Each structure stands twice: as C-alpha cells, then as structure tokens.
DNA sequence: CGCTACATACCGACTGGACGGTCACTGTCA
DNA sequence: TGACAGTGACCGTCCAGTCGGTATGTAGCG
C-alpha cells in the first residue's frame, strides 16, 4: 500500500470537484458554468467528473449539499454564541446569511445557485431540506413562530437584495434588524 | 386605411409576443422557454419574433418591462386605496407582491424571471429600475426609512419563499406582516 | 505467493440534439 | 420605390452526456 497511490480515495476526488466547481461558479457565473469548465479546472478529466457526478444536476446537488451543510453549521455556530435565548435561532439565521457583506465571488455563486434552483425546482427543495434542519429541535425558544418567521423572511429578502443589488443596506441597518426580537414584545400582531 | 390590414401595427405584434411568451414561461418553465417555443405559440414566425426582439435577452427585457410596469401600477393602486398614510408605500408593495396566493402559473413565471435575472445581471437591474419608481416621490410619508426597508425585505423574502416553496405562510401571517407599521412606533431600533 | 477475475477510477474523443441567431426573399403599405 | 413587417429554411456553436478503452486496485483460490 503506497502512500503515493495514483488512485485517490473517491471522496477526495468528489471533494476536489465540488471545490473547483464553486470556483468556476464564482469566476464564470451561471453562463460559464459548464461541465467542461469544471473538469478543466480539476486534476481529473471530464470522464472522471461524470463518473463521480453522473449528470450536471447531480453536480449541482453536490454543491448545494456542500453549501447547505456549511451554512447550517454556521447558523448553529452563531446560535451557540448568542447568550439571549429569545429568538436565538432566527437571529442566528440572519447573522449567518447576511451579516457580513458579500464578496463578488459570493454573489456569483449565489446567482448560480439561484438560477439552478429556479430552473430545477428539485434543487430548491434540496436547499430547503438543509435549512430546515436548523429550526428543528429548539422548543426552548419562547419566541413566537410569527416573529421568527418574520426575521427569516427579512434575512431571505436581504440575501436576495445582496445577490441582485436591489437595495444598499448599511451595516447599521443590518444591525438594527438583528435587534428586532426582544422577550415579551411580540412584533407581529397575532402571536399565538 | 383598412381596418383589416394584414400588416399589423408593430406595437400590437410586440404585445402579442410578450403575452404569449409569458404563457410559454408559465407552462414550460425556464428549461422550456425557448425562442422556438415562443414563436410557435404566436401568430408570427420566428423570424418576425427576432425582428421585433433581436435577441432572447431583448425579449426577456420586454417581458420584464411589461411585468415591471404592471407591478408598479398595482403597487400604486394599492397605495391609493390605503387610508393610512404612515408606511403606505411599503405596505402597498407588500400587498401587491404577495398578498394573494400565487397560481402555479405565477410561480412558473417567477422562476423564469428569477433565473433570467440570476444569469444576466442586467435584467435584474432592469427590474430594480421599475420597482424603484414606486418609492420615489412620496416625502409625505413619515415612516422611517429603516422600517419601510424592513417591510420591503419581508415582501421580497416572502416572494422568494412562495417561488421556491420554502415556507408555508398562512393568510393570517401575511395579514400580520401588513400590520407592522403604525405611526409613532418605530420597529427597528435606529430610526433617523 | 502468483494467478485469475472482477470492480472501480479514470480518460478524452466523439455525438447528437438543442437552440440562438442569420439570411435571402416575399408581401404590403405610404 | 423605399421602408419595413414578416417568412422559414438554414447554420454554427455549444455542451451534456456517451462510449470504448486503459490503468489500478482487491478478492478468491490453489
């Protein structure tokens, strides 16, 4: 068993492909995101790419799983460092999603993912699955469901605004949105 | 000047093409939205289609202009029938955008527009231009800019949620979001 | 330990179809 | 007659996915 084996572990190859695919998405955008472009950037051939991801959609699924997992992790990490339990998860979701300004690469990747989800609805479902994992298992949070939803909608709207360049939202404004939820003061009218 | 002229006014043809293009978008989705499919549905040929819209992007621009104009109108209409001046425009934006549940056709068209904007950023700018027209020219509204922005982000987030099927938001919850803005009670912390 | 058999990673030229866009031409009006 | 709506066959490109083949592992077996 040689440490310099020529045949790598499949998981390594898959990981490399996804990593490079994200680079291509970041640099070339949706129109330049082709299997050939991705393969050209990896150390493996297009054949190997198709061997590990049997279709373009399968590759996008892999990318979305990767991004979804990372995003879910960062939401949980934000929640873990938030001392205030009230509305913690919703706040963490907003922080992890749009707290810091996007790089041009982030925007480009966001656009590719967005286009993919718009063209292939199953990909949108797959993303939703990842994000759904976060809000589960926190009955300890006394925040009203409506308020929590409100903050998530704000986060999503802000994300879309950043991706499409709709509104210029300052850091102060983002900060203000984070302060919306306070214990015992429901924002929306019909709390349960 | 014959009323049954065989050569129609160009504007009529353009209008028909855009109308039929939206039908194709509604029924076939982003992957089925091709120039051939659009031409096949109109009374004119593909050549005429390309005569009026010299490229696919030009056609999408025409569709976005159409949708943007209609949407801006319906926002203004909502605003006009709202007796409460405080936050009127922001509320109207939310109402016009996501007050009533989307039909599958609406969702499909939304996805096509979304994909187009994600792939071709200039289209996103074009949409923004239409929507920007609404918030202009209302210095009479005393609502804080931050609160107005908040409601717009909620509306956008809700729109995206409807398009991607992320959250199931009840009519009651939508109603509650409309009640967020009340005079003299800023929601966000740092009102000007 | 070889030897065989099979599985899997990988290669890259090729294909087949989709699709955006062109063009030479006709018909119709002012 | 010039300008323009409109035609539809055609073209060129792009690109996802295929396929025959090679290289490199591993498992069984005497």
UniProtKB/TrEMBL annotation, chains A, B:
Going by the UniProt record, its keywords in alphabetical order are: DNA-binding, Transcription, Transcription regulation
Q: Does the keyword Transmembrane helix apply?
A: no
The family database entries (Pfam families) matched by this protein are listed as:
TetR_C_28 (PF17937), TetR_N (PF00440)
| Residues in the DNA-binding region annotation | 34-53
Q: One GO MF term, please?
A: transcription cis-regulatory region binding
Q: Does the keyword Lyase apply?
A: no
Question: Which segments constitute the HTH tetR-type domain?
Answer: 11-71
| PANTHER family according to UniProt | HTH-TYPE TRANSCRIPTIONAL REGULATOR BETI (PTHR30055:SF234), HTH-TYPE TRANSCRIPTIONAL REGULATOR RUTR (PTHR30055)
Name-wise, this protein is AcrR family transcriptional regulator
Q: Which organism is it from?
A: Brevundimonas mediterranea
